[in-house]
Amino acid sequence: QVQLVESGGGLVQAGGSVRLSCAASGRTVSASAMGWFRQAPDRERAIVAGISWSGGTTYYADSVKGRFTISRDNAKNTLYLQMNSLNPEDTAVYYCAARRTTGFSGRYYLNEYEYDYWGQGTQVTVSS
Prior knowledge:
Oligomer: single chain
Order of helices and strands: EEEEEEEEEEE
Helix content: under 10%
Structural class: mainly beta
Number of helices: 0
């Protein structure tokens, strides 16, 4: 079993930056694809960014492309999301997720059902 704990959320002004972290425990996720999702009020949870096990392949939703960067440190069993040029539309609860299945393909995954482990979420609020 894997436990994921997000941190780094909070209140930030428009144009500012935040770095989210997701620490995994229980077992290593270094061979698992991972991702960041977010859920805004009255909206469904949606993919923000995905990353392959090595970090060599990444995906970004159009709404965050060029502003957000997903990365991972497998030695630390930690996933990151650097968020720059934030705007009020980025306000949401941000969740990290990991797949149970390990493997060394260069794939990332975009759908909730493709992930097995989820963190509790961290709130990011962007004020205008």
